[in-house]
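Troubleshooting entry. The earlier prediction with magnesium ion gave an output that would not parse, so I re-checked the input for stray whitespace and re-submitted. Clean input:
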Amino acid sequence: MPLQQWIPQMAEGCVLTIKLFLITALFSVPLGLVFTFLYTTKNKLINKIVGLYILIMRGTPLLLQIFFVYFGLPYVPVIGEYLTINDRFTAGAVAFILNYAAYFAEIFRGGLLSVDKGQYEAAKVLGMTDMQTRFKIVLPQMFRIALPSVSNEAIVLIKDTALITAIGLTDLLKVTQTIVNRTTNISAFAVAALFYLVMSYVLTVFFKFLEKKFSF
Amino acid sequence: MSLMQINNLKKSFGNLEVLKDISLTVEKGDVIAVLGPSGSGKSTFLRSLIDLETVDGGDIIIEGKPLCQGGKYIPMKERKQVLDKMGMVFQHFNLFPHMNIEKNLLVAPLCAKQADKDSLKEEAKKVLDKVGLLDKLNDMPSTLSGGQKQRVAIARALMRNPDILLFDEPTSALDPELTGEVLNVIKELSDEKMTMLIVTHEIGFAHEAANKILFMDGGYVLAFGTPQEVLDNSGNPRIEAFLNKVL
Ligand SMILES: Nc1ncnc2c1ncn2[C@@H]1O[C@H](COP(=O)(O)OP(=O)(O)OP(=O)(O)O)[C@@H](O)[C@H]1O
Ligand SMILES: [Mg+2]
């Protein structure tokens, strides 16, 4: 099979990769933010629960979590039948979102800790409420501080998407494997590497732009 | 009625008693320099007046309205109102680094719906002009010198039309050649009869610009009076030892 035929097939595989990437990014960032706030509220019990959640998500393999969401959830006692996700892509995306939200929560928490306490004091003596301070003063600075780490995480994510093949979905990597098996020509791997590289490069440029735009 | 009445303030951090018994009456137009050795509780005292620290005992009464009485605070919601006419300037400026100078000045008044945006913008220009930085309106804080940052911080505090301004070592983080421009702005405010409490180590400035000196030591008021009374001939060995060290 000639190169001209691989490329469209691989590009099609890329669509799934990119779709998973975008959906994960879209949902895990806000969810991570929510976890960060829950993790930094004064309620000790909520702190502990979120802390445990983050520990589990970061402390076990993402592949295992994908298996668990797709194969394991239906077997959870009592509520299992309500947790069943039949669509493979949805199940995979849920696992990715839950996992990445934990990482983003930690990144944002780090950003939050680096906002100087003088910022809160200045806002307070200027009469701003806690909410106004949080949204106008603290969050923008937190995002800016977190940006390099978020960029890093985004690049890890684009490569991690390949894990979704484990529950039978066909992404860029899976297409490539199939081509290699059929043609017994391993150069498709090189083309796949190039695809991933281009996607990572686009992300890098995008985040560099954001960092510049929001520098202070 | 005095502008601010402070009676028998007490405050501890754990076992450390920082304010033991501080009383002070502030009259309208007073410029009070707060002096004293490091650790004597100057910052804690100033911060407690604007609710950045909570005292354990005593009264703070601002323009006739109590913030706390006998160590008991009024509810959170009402504190904002009582503190409405107070402003504070910090040693490290605490400008909002992600906003340009204009936004730094506007953000709080806009949040509080103090006035409509256009008139606030006019006001921002007026106060920036007053501190000599009108040309920096659209600049980011990181591009300013320390002295300029502190002048912006003063302008930002002025946006709320305060009746009382608190300064905690406004020039201590500055290179010596930049302190003058900040002290000059404070002097101009005192000419306009702004009521101010200024924690400072600049004895010359205190002597010149303040009408009263509050000398704190070990959580107590060691002396309170005119610069002549407190600085020139207090006859107090602790004050003299302090002055010998800083001069
Ligand atoms: N948040 C805090 N927790 C515990 N101890 C504190 C806290 N803030 C201040 N202290 C202690 O209280 C004492 C008085 O501090 P304060 O900052 O009021 O002194 P100061 O007179 O302003 O000193 P300086 O001239 O060094 O600024 C010091 O011993 C300080 O270590
Ligand atoms: Mg101090």
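This one parsed fine. The mean pLDDT of chain B is 95.
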